[in-house]
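Run log, item B.
One chain of 278 residues. Sequence copied directly from the ordering sheet:
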Amino acid sequence: MKNDQQIKEMVRSKYSEIAQQNKTTNQSSCCGAGGCSTEVYNIMTDDYTALDGYVPAADLGLGCGLPTEFAKIKAGQTVVDLGSGAGNDCFIARKETGADGRVIGIDFTEEMILQARANATKLGYQNVEFRLGDIENIPLSANVADVVVSNCVLNLVPNKEQVFQEIFRILKPGGHFSISDVVIVGDLPAALKASAEMYAGCVAGAIQKSHYLNLIQQAGFSNVILQKEKAIVIPDDILSKYLDEPMLNILREGKVGIYSITVYAEKAKSCCGSNCCS
């Protein structure tokens, strides 16, 4: 597999391409760019259309969950969306925070930022902003966010441990996150791990579910709750590009599982001595 910087550049290039495609093209593909499946249906994406604040132009069909539905966002709060794309989760979060809240989207693909800003301008939102930046080094000061959300993005980042540490840093004491992501259970075949397309498609970059949850705890979070979990079934016509029949059988038999999870965790309130005071 490529080194970390090469992976980042590959992901940036792929998602720049995705930003210029329509949702139908993105959803018919395992990787979000280019039709790599003859079975045209959503592989990972959940349906956002019933959520208040949904903006069709901002939905590129790239997520694997509905983190904003589970994020317990309240009016007036500051919400940060990591890997904000065209602004889909940010606009839904803005519906929850209201005009008195603040929503900040972070994405490292310039084309996505431009598209998100254009969508925000059309909507007339003055309290939604989008910043170009790497979520391994989030361009925000410490203790600014009440809530952090992210949808199928951390699996694309080489240093997931660093991202969770950054989330902890930017959250206010007492703040929390709700993140949807892809994880695996069992040993993913090497051919999938080595594929750039499957990495950009949120599979090859996924880590073990147990390790993922451990990283959250190691970053200092408490009250870690698995809010939702669903199996992801990748069509055989995609997998056959990378795997022989014996390896396909291993996946069919359930010896390796690929899952979308939505996980919640909190940053403890500040403490003075032995008693919390805020």
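Observations after the first pass:
- Residues 4-19 form the longest helix (16 residues).
- Confidence is low (pLDDT under 50) at residues 28-42.
Flagged for discussion on Thursday.
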